[in-house]
Fold this protein.
Amino acid sequence: MKAIRADLLDFPSQPTWGETGDHQPRWRPDHWLLINDLGHIAAIQQEEPAAGIERHDHSGKLLLPGFIDTHVHSPQLPVLASYGTELLDWLNTYTFPTETAWQDPAVAARGTALFLDALLAHGTTAAVVFPTVHKTSADALFSAATQRGMRVIGGKVLMDRHAPDGLRDDVRGAERDCRDLIERWHGQGRNSYAVTVRFAPTSTPEQLAMAGALCKADPTLYMQTHVAENRDEVRWVGELFPAARSSLDVDARAGLLHERSVLAHGIWLDAEDRARLYATGAQVAHCPTSNLFLGSGLFDWRATAPAPVSIATDVGGGTSLSMQRTLAAAYAVQAMQGQRLTAWSALHAATRGAAEALQLQGEIGALEPGLMADLCLWDWSVGAVDAERIGRAQGLHEKVFAWLTLSDERHLAATWVAGRPLFTRRTA
Ligand code: GUN
Ligand code: ZN
């Protein structure tokens, strides 16, 4: 057993939109969180732990559940901060050439290790991940995650058209690869398989149907794709699938929308799409830094809810793996539309909200006995400017909101996955 002393913050339930009251989160300052030898949270208490329990005293720091990034691309760290394009040009100019290199298993293994360690160094302990079209890229993801004990959801990317040589599969081969990967990885340890359709334009109708059939055959599988991100993309989907009433309708007709579906972006949905989304139980992974950087548009969170909305970096379209930076961008995107995203709704979406949307609330997303000890420990401030602001905050929401807006990975002191310390900040 070991015990961590810090200020604990998490959410027992979904905060009310726009409400900044202190009763919305569960705030347990100066508490001890006890971790058992299986890596589960054993207890949370104010009293000092019993003698014999290893103590880690981090009083004055903030302990949160590890962040959950519901949409991020493992091969795209080299694509970060690429200048001057919108989605379709960005894919062709930067992203596809970079992903092609992952046909070499050594490149994929090295890139995946770098990527997962980078997530941990940003306080993210669980992620829904797009690797590449290559089967070995999914093997690399699951085996590196297994080594670290991380919760990951992912799958080989399906794309059998409108992509360069070296980055296309075909329906038969892709189905074989998916079945083999599912058998070897789905439900093994903390890995889950997601049927991974890149987006409608890069799959033939036959491949979309195959993906839908895989989902239908096993309702424990996840599904991930991009939908309605960019206006040129939406127009192109309309040309490729003239019988569909919308981009979302293409996915719906293929049988891709269900309670374990994660749809990245969902900016250009209409009211009928949103009602349908809600009816299927699928969630939207909102990717605000990506949407701003690629000029994709402003996601309407209020109109999309009551469908679940989680938060995602979408690196390399997004500009940072930091969930705080992503949440700060989410605040700005809502502000542009006359809405106010509270620190409570923001942090909930990045922790318990995402866990519930993924049906993983029994494993991650909160600080509760029985859940895995996936934790991140944060400094409230690291410099004179944020210290000045945080020091003057009146009340809990103001303090946490200022922290969320001003902090990033520099504030991360430590990350634990299943109770094991996998990141500790080097002190100079
Ligand atoms: N749509 C299809 N592929 C991608 C991708 O890699 N990133 C983003 N942001 N959108 C996509
Ligand atoms: Zn993406």
Remarks:
- The pocket of zinc ion (ligand 2) is lined by residues 71, 73, 226, 264, 314, 317 (CB under 6 Å).
